[in-house]
């Protein structure tokens, strides 16, 4: 069989990314222009600024990906692009670019679901991994437990009722005075804390035992911080800027002098509550549905405490665990090229009327 080379584009949020992927799992290049430094100035992603940056960078990023792969557009067999979910203006840049290349070069166009891409990131470094398996998808916008039935067949068996896991990390980071993006900063700060210092709630909601809820936990952390501050006669409702870390941020600062609880203790206890719920739901669901393979995907899957705890639990239960390297957990185009390949060989083709779909559901065409 001839090699199939796919040029992939990802622009759903604040990363402008392009990649050349051969036969689905062989990444020839993975070019990412991260806008994080820019959005940090505003304390979070500003959609219009993201779109404008994408349009400025996208051609350079694609050229970078082709050059690094030692390829030209003429060598490509198809073009894959994220068309949802995500920020509409940001998605439109990638979709319009992919359509232009597809039209000019007469290349088949394959629209890819962003979460399908995150899941596929696991195939890149784990050549032995094949569906079916249970996948925990944890990103800034999504928290899903997904049965990956086949490369392009999914069933969601658990979802968040409110905040996504990454969103909770970002909000708690802000409450203690760590800047944007919160997840990696909480991960680092928690190393200095005791995870059993504060007993935060492990949220369960509704009928479905595999659903998640993180807004109660987030409120519990905020209430705890406020009550400690008030006990010390300070203003309880402190709101820190998300732009940068507090200049005087000290992980060992006492939050509650009576009990000796520090900022790092609060952060570590919060992280442990999130990790506990993510691990127990995933392992229980794998057991109930009869899977011996678990994968993790999305930005939060790079969290060191989550990786450690999931690994420990999977070893105990004799489950095989897969997760991508951190650079493939957060947004990138290699994962879109991988998912795009499996869509392509399954016959998926989109026309030049492909549009951005900000609320695209997993498994929808
Ligand atoms: O998958 P992703 O790059 O973008 C979305 O599709 O949303 O995920 C970004 C999210 C952010 O909320 C970020 O704070 C979180 O992933 N994140 C982490 C870590 N690295 C990124 N959360 C916890 N620990 C980390 N090490
Ligand atoms: Zn993502």
What would a concise description of this structure say?
The chain contains 11 helices and 12 strands.
Features:
365 residues, alpha/beta, Nucleotidyltransferase, domain 5, 2 domains, five-stranded mixed beta sheet, binds 5'-O-[(R)-(carboxyoxy)(hydroxy)phosphoryl]adenosine, binds zinc ion
Q: Can you tell me about this structure?
A:
The protein has 2 domains: 144 residues, Nucleotidyltransferase, domain 5; 194 residues, Nucleotidyltransferase, domain 5. 42% of the residues lie in helices and 19% in strands. It contains 11 helices and 12 strands. It has a 5-stranded mixed beta sheet, sandwiched between helices. Strand 9 and strand 10 form a beta hairpin. Helix 6 packs across helix 8 and helix 7 packs antiparallel against helix 8. The structure holds 5'-O-[(R)-(carboxyoxy)(hydroxy)phosphoryl]adenosine and zinc ion. Zinc ion (ZN) binds next to helix 4.
Task: Compile the SSE list and pairings.
Elements: E1 5-10, E2 15-22, E3 26-34, H1 36-40, H2 47-69, E4 78-84, H3 88-105, E5 109-113, H4 114-125, E6 133-138, E7 143-150, E8 153-159, H5 165-176, H6 182-190, H7 215-231, E9 254-256, E10 261-262, H8 263-289, E11 293-297, H9 304-316, E12 320-322, H10 326-329, H11 334-345
Parallel strand pairs: 1-4, 4-5, 6-11, 11-12
Antiparallel strand pairs: 1-2, 2-3, 6-7, 7-8, 9-10
Helix pairs in contact: 2-3, 4-11, 5-6, 5-7, 5-8, 6-8, 7-8, 8-9
This protein binds 5'-O-[(R)-(carboxyoxy)(hydroxy)phosphoryl]adenosine and zinc ion (ZN).
């Amino acid at each position: 069989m001839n090699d199939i080379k796919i040029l992939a584009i990802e622009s759903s949020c604040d990363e402008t990314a392009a990649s050349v992927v051969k036969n689905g799992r062989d990444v020839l290049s993975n070019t990412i222009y991260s806008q994080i430094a820019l959005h940090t100035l505003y304390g979070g992603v500003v959609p219009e600024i993201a779109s404008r940056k994408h349009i400025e960078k996208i051609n350079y990023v694609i050229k970078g990906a082709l050059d690094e792969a030692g390829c030209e557009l003429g060598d490509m067999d198809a073009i894959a692009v994220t068309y949802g979910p995500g920020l509409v203006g940001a998605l439109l840049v990638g979709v319009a670019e992919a359509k232009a290349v597809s039209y000019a070069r007469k290349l088949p166009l394959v629209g890819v679901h962003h979460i399908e891409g995150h899941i596929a990131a696991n195939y890149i470094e784990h050549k032995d991994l094949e569906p079916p398996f249970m996948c925990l998808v944890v990103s800034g916008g999504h928290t899903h437990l997904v049965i990956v039935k086949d490369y392009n067949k999914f069933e969601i068996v658990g979802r968040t009722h409110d905040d996504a896991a990454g969103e909770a990390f970002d909000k708690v980071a802000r409450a203690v005075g760590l800047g944007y993006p919160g997840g990696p900063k909480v991960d680092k700060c928690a190393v200095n804390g005791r995870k059993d210092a504060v007993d935060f709630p492990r949220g369960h909601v509704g009928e479905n035992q595999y659903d998640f809820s993180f807004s109660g936990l987030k409120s519990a952390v905020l209430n705890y911080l406020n009550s400690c501050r008030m006990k010390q006669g300070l203003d309880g409702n402190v709101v820190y800027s998300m732009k940068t870390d507090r200049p005087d941020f000290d992980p060992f600062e006492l939050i509650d002098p009576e009990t000796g609880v520090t900022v790092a203790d609060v952060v570590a206890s919060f992280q442990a509550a999130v990790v506990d719920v993510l691990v127990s739901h995933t392992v229980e669901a794998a057991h109930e549905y009869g899977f011996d393979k678990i994968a993790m995907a999305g930005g939060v899957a790079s969290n060191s405490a989550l990786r450690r705890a999931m690994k420990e639990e999977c070893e105990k239960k004799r489950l095989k665990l897969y997760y991508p390297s951190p650079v493939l957990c957060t947004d990138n185009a290699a994962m879109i090229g991988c998912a795009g390949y499996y869509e392509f060989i399954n016959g998926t083709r989109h026309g030049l009327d492909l549009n951005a779909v900000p609320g695209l559901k997993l498994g929808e065409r």
